[in-house]
From TrEMBL:
<dbReference type="InterPro" id="IPR000182">
    <property type="entry name" value="GNAT_dom"/>
</dbReference>
<keyword id="KW-0808">Transferase</keyword>
<dbReference type="InterPro" id="IPR050832">
    <property type="entry name" value="Bact_Acetyltransf"/>
</dbReference>
<dbReference type="InterPro" id="IPR016181">
    <property type="entry name" value="Acyl_CoA_acyltransferase"/>
</dbReference>
<protein>
    <submittedName>
        <fullName>GNAT family N-acetyltransferase</fullName>
    </submittedName>
</protein>
<feature type="domain" description="N-acetyltransferase">
    <location>
        <begin position="22"/>
        <end position="168"/>
    </location>
</feature>
<dbReference type="Pfam" id="PF00583">
    <property type="entry name" value="Acetyltransf_1"/>
</dbReference>
<dbReference type="GO" id="GO:0016747">
    <property type="term" value="F:acyltransferase activity, transferring groups other than amino-acyl groups"/>
</dbReference>
<keyword id="KW-0012">Acyltransferase</keyword>
Amino acid sequence: MARVSTAWTVTREPVDSPAATALWRAYYTEVSDRWYLKETGRPTAPDELERGIAEETGEGLRGPDGVLLVARLRGEPVGTAGVRRLDATTCELKRVFLLPSVRGKGGAGALMDAAEETARAFGARRLVLDTRLDLIEARKLYAKRGFAEIPAYNSGAYQEIWYGKELTGS
């Protein structure tokens, strides 16, 4: 069993801060390489990787209707979760990610707690997300946190499964 550290902090951060930018690059590289390896047997080509990283600016995670949360372990930025308001009662969870070196040490719970608290602060009664079927670890986390599969609420090349959770204490 992994030892849970009490040295976690989660704070709001601009999507274009150095820490957020580095974590976005790490996140995108991991999920892109997983997809390319599954579909083509090779990692993402460098030019394709750079194009994908640049295309997603994170604008939806800026105020007033969005927040990017950065998790730090003993002060080092190691993970993110984004929350954006979709409507008066629903927020969407985006960019949930921890560096592989810190997984299993309590950061996912800290990030998810902070994301749910942020959604409640937006007035949300429901939190939704989309993901890919091959991101099994993420899907296990969402199920463990009380998310259940829901009908699609958006569409895109990489959305394959959708989850929702009713927030208590809203």
